[in-house]
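Async update (no meeting this week)

Hi team, since we skipped the sync, here's where things stand on the single-chain job. The sequence we agreed to prioritize is pasted below, unchanged from the tracker. I ran it this morning and attached the output directly underneath so nobody has to dig for it. Comments welcome in thread, and please keep replies under the output.
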Amino acid sequence: MKNGQVAHSNPLVDAIVEGIQEVKGKSIVHLDLRDVPNTVCDHFVICHGDSATQVESIARSVQEYARTNVGEKPWHTEGERNAEWILMDFVDVVVHIFHREKRPYYALEELWGDAARMTYENVA
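Output:
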């Protein structure tokens, strides 16, 4: 279920979004950074969970869906210990999974406001 302004064809992004939706991650946003100069990757996928447990579950689900659906695993993962902001680096795609309270503080969507954006519905 997609709404937004950017059309993409990236199986890894699709698998990541499905993994987030599977465990009810909230406010899922895909930022396509390919036309933004000086970026470290091509895509950001951003979401949040309501608790540290949910943030951890989202990260596990993303890892499982990426591995199962497209044979990818993160090159590097950070933030699992405190589960306030887990970053999963798949090289071309970076996933940011925030705890609800931390997401507005970092405001990645505003920081990268010139990127093409797609939002996804929260699936029950």
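Quick observations from my side:
Residues 52-70 form the longest helix (19 residues).
The chain has a mean pLDDT of 91.
Reply here if anything looks off.
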